[in-house]
Amino acid sequence: MLMSTHEARLDALRKELARRELDGFVVPISDEHMSEYVGAYAQRLQWLTGFNGSAGTAVVLAQGADGKGATIFVDGRYTLQVRDQVDGAHWDYASVPETSPAKWLGDHAPEGARIGYDAWLHSRTWAETVAKALAKRNATLVAVDGNPIDAVWQDRPAPSRAPALVHADTLAGQSSADKRAVVAQWLTGEGLDAVVIPALDSIAWLLNIRGTDVDRTPVALGFVIAHADATADLFIDPAKVTPELTAHLGHAVRIAPLDGFAGALQALAGKRVAVDPDHAVAAIFTALDSAGAQVVSASDPCVLPKAVKNAAEQAGHRAAQARDGAAVSRFLHWLSVAAPQGTVDELAAAARLQAFREGTGSLRDLSFDTISGSGPNGAIVHYRVSEETNRPLVPGSVYLVDSGGQYPDGTTDITRTVWIGPGDAPADVKDRFTRVLKGHIALARAVFPQGTNGSQLDTLARQFLWQAGIDYAHGTGHGVGSFLSVHEGPQRISKAGGNQELLAGMIVSNEPGYYKTGEYGIRIENLVLVEPRTIAGAEGEWLGFETLTHVPIDRALIDSTLLDPAERAWLDAYHARVLALIGPQLDDDARDWLRRACAPLVSA
């Protein structure tokens, strides 16, 4: 009999832990590749708790006197969502970074406890940190033999067996052989024999392959070991291997069954092997150490070149953005007609937006679950609409839609906030929207010296909100892949830090926001490309941003008196480019709407 309630699932897990003589267990959102988005088979936290956000961790101890003993940890993006989805009668809520699972266990684990963890789901650094925290209570961290949730999850889905797909060299801009040669050159220069690559997007980039194994991210499940002679071993389910894939990879890439990966790690005995501690689970380090390999912690050699888009990838992204911008503009035109009638809800809006993208004929998937938030739901930063939370788009309210598409030539991500008429938006809403817009423009116009990292630019986007004593609890920008992950490192724009300098060819988002709990959310997001800038008389090399996203920004929410002449000029120029690029792709009614949406602001 399947367990239909999360209370029953929590009880079943506790019984399994007791059978294994464990006093607790840590449940992350993760897979064997430390992916951001994971396949259905790895959605253990959601199965256990009901929480469906993209980041979170749970710690389950024996039931306490208060009937709980279980805590779920989320960051500021999910403070509201976790309370809606996870039953507070059985779970406590903890906020990151104010605390962490390690700190919490150091304070709350029973004296002498044995706390279990799955070494295939956590980094080595995480395990070391937690073990150190537990030592204060004479407790120990125990690597389990088989995940205890898998033992009680009776209808757990199997990992995908869909075929891996070839990604054309014309879209990649570089052959896999050339990429492997660069990695081999790096290995040789560092005196290394091999590098273990578990990150799915790195594997996809290195081998020029894609897949459908993870919703919203076009990757294929597998592991790679790349060698200093420019060959590589790909460990993958044989059911995923097609003749086309074999021909594409050639003789220099050996294909082996996925279950052969652990043995291949053992075969690296005596070799100098690079592993990225930020992208490899603890179990990989343990296997190499036990085999007698000399493990060298080093950054995944695919990460940086993957982030710096070549000319073909840049051209592909511009084409994808033009196509996607037309789809989103068609949606906004439709919304302007349908929503004021009061007949549209969040689910219907998200479905219609997806239909417009599918109408391009090129959409392979969404790049993430569409955030379709009306009124107070828009204030939930990473809101995910469901039948239970679905709200109508009420006339006289704010609607936020954050969405994106996966196309063979590029990955898109755009947020627009719109006023659902009729009537004018309240002055306070216009004030907040315009402050967000001013920050967006300030970042879009930024010119900065080579060597600048994203944290040094973050204040540009927040300054006008800070002047009003308000802020937002998420980063201002993240990297974006080329028909890969919509959230791609190592670059980012965030006050939380990050020391990766921005390099020409990197794509990042520009997405300041404001969220009034219980009322509305505002976010304006475009993707931008880091590009060289020429400044007369400049000393050294300078960079700036090319805006790639072309969709109108809602003029009904702008208080133009708050914009200075340079900001108005930027917005008018942006809208002129939108009209020129997107207008020819639209039919007559939508094109007329676009002309009005892109009309110049009236100077104050």
Automatic annotation (TrEMBL):
Pfam assignment, any one: Peptidase_M24
GO CC field: cytoplasm
Domain Peptidase M24 C-terminal: 541-601
GO molecular function per UniProt: metal ion binding; metalloaminopeptidase activity
Keyword Lyase: no
Similarity section: Belongs to the peptidase M24B family.
Name by which UniProt lists this protein: Peptidase M24 family protein
